[in-house]
Specification:
- This protein is of the alpha+beta class and 463 residues long.
- It is built from 21 helices and eight strands.
- The radius of gyration is 22 Å and the shape is globular.
Length: 463
């Protein structure tokens, strides 16, 4: 049995006590893929106007320092670098996501370890280890959050993961780590009211910023800044706030789940999806089904009389814009994703602009798409329980063509390979980095455990 303060103590001990040699080859490989992907999508995010606004904000606040803002050629403090880079990682909804957890890990953890690693000239092995343990803590805590409180709880779980990564990297002691964790437990959660606004990815950046700030305050360098050292299990702590009593039978026992920290790592099981498309993951099986039909039958969009998409109620609950008017709304629209995949092929960043969504050809195709969700299955236990999609096309020549996809590309059962990931990095960074820097960044991420000082890598990402 755990001691009365065991949950918080256990998490801190895990974060501090897991050596690089304790990470399996699979954990190391997946973590490097996640970091490469996070860098890629942050570079793509840097081309958006919101990234410039954040950079100006950091400058205005006097955030001078040694930490790179990705794609901006500027450095700031670790706190503001974490905020800006965490926001950019999630800005285009192109980052990773843990299967059945609903949490995006890299947007909170990657910016923290890169900022602190650059500031202190840490070795790639240390940065990689901190990233892996921070992601593991965040994901395990996400597994405890009840569906009714998921939005708030996932944001705090992400901040705690960022905190544990930062504390591990800076070499906090056990007491400092527990204090930092307690500070992070007071972080604000995430709001779905901001679903299609830039303030939504800002929430991810705040999780990274809050984790960085929690560790810097808890470290005795600035004096003694204390918090509850039972932030997880104390009355009114994380578990009290974010375990939904109505969902208690469907979520794991906290003691049982936290005792499995690192055994296995969640990036291995249940695994992490790295997205091939910059949109809500619940729509990816629909995209894949359309692309398969187009490839198999060489379909011309003009030959499609109508298209019917059949998904689970959980998918329909996530894809909330049947008639999107903007690029941001289109990321959550099955009608748009179906039409865009028919017209353009695999939808990428260019397909999620306001002008692309208002293209008359897309609007006309969208009018031919209907979406149907059958009665909720009794086996469906969460909004992420089923992402299967069946797309049926009625053709003008009388044919009816259909295809079902159960597992989307990028899912752990159908992962992107190394060529896919490198192509994604090239695509995302092509307007920011020169070709030799792109190649150099990919090589360093691939060999991260042998990089003696990540300052050079961070500098490359600055553009």
């Amino acid at each position: 049995m755990l001691s009365p303060m065991g949950h918080t103590q256990l998490i801190a001990e895990f974060a501090l006590g897991t050596p690089f040699d304790g990470l399996s080859g699979q954990v190391v490989s997946i973590s490097k893929d996640m970091m490469l992907n996070a860098a890629a999508v942050a570079l793509a995010g840097a081309a958006q106007p919101e990234a410039l606004a954040l950079t100006r904000f950091a400058q205005e606040m006097g955030g001078n320092g040694k930490c790179t803002i990705v794609g901006m050629g500027l450095r700031t403090s670790p706190v503001y670098a974490a905020l800006a880079n965490g926001t950019m990682v999630h800005l285009l909804d192109f980052d990773d996501e843990v299967v059945d957890r609903g949490i995006h890990l890299s947007s909170a953890v990657f910016p923290v370890v890169m900022a602190l690693g650059e500031m202190n000239g840490y070795a790639g092995k240390d940065v990689l280890t901190a990233f892996a343990v921070g992601c593991e803590v965040a994901s395990k805590l996400a597994g405890l959050v009840g569906p009714g409180l998921a939005t708030n709880g996932l944001g705090v779980a992400a901040a705690i993961g960022a905190t544990m990564a930062a504390g591990r990297l800076l070499g906090l002691d056990q007491e400092e780590m527990e204090n930092a964790l307690g500070i992070a437990c007071g972080s604000g959660g995430w709001s779905r009211a901001d679903l299609v606004f830039p303030s939504r990815p800002l929430q991810h950046g705040r999780a990274a910023m809050n984790g960085t700030m929690a560790v810097l305050l808890a470290r005795r360098t600035f004096g003694r800044f204390e918090s509850s050292r039972q932030g997880i299990e104390a009355p009114g702590g994380f578990l009290d706030c974010y375990i939904d009593p109505d969902s208690a039978p469907s979520i794991p026992d906290p003691e049982a789940l936290l005792s499995q920290l690192g055994n296995p790592f969640d990036v291995v099981q249940p695994g992490v999806t790295i997205k091939p498309y910059p949109c809500e993951s619940a729509g990816h099986t629909t995209i894949d089904a359309v692309l398969q039909l187009v490839q198999q039958y060489r379909i011309d969009p003009g030959e499609v009389r109508s298209a019917r998409v059949t998904v689970s109620p959980a998918t329909l609950q996530a894809m909330v814009y049947p008639c999107p008017q903007s690029g941001r709304e289109a990321r959550f629209s099955l009608t748009y994703l179906t039409a865009a995949a028919l017209l353009y092929g695999a939808p990428l960043i260019e397909q999620f602009t306001d002008s692309a969504v208002q293209d008359p050809r897309v609007r006309e195709l969208m009018a031919r798409v209907t979406v149907d969700a059958p009665m909720k299955s009794t086996s469906e236990s969460s909004p992420l329980a089923s992402q299967a999609s069946t797309v049926t096309l009625d053709m003008v020549d009388g044919r009816q063509l259909g295809h079902r996809v159960d597992v989307p590309r990028g899912h752990p059962e159908l992962p992107l390979d190394q060529d896919d990931l490198e192509a994604k990095f090239l695509y995302c960074s092509r307007y920011i980095l020169p070709p030799d820097h792109i190649e150099g960044a990919v090589e360093q991420f691939r060999d991260l455990e042998n990089v003696r000082d990540i300052t050079g890598l961070a500098s490359i990402l600055g553009g």
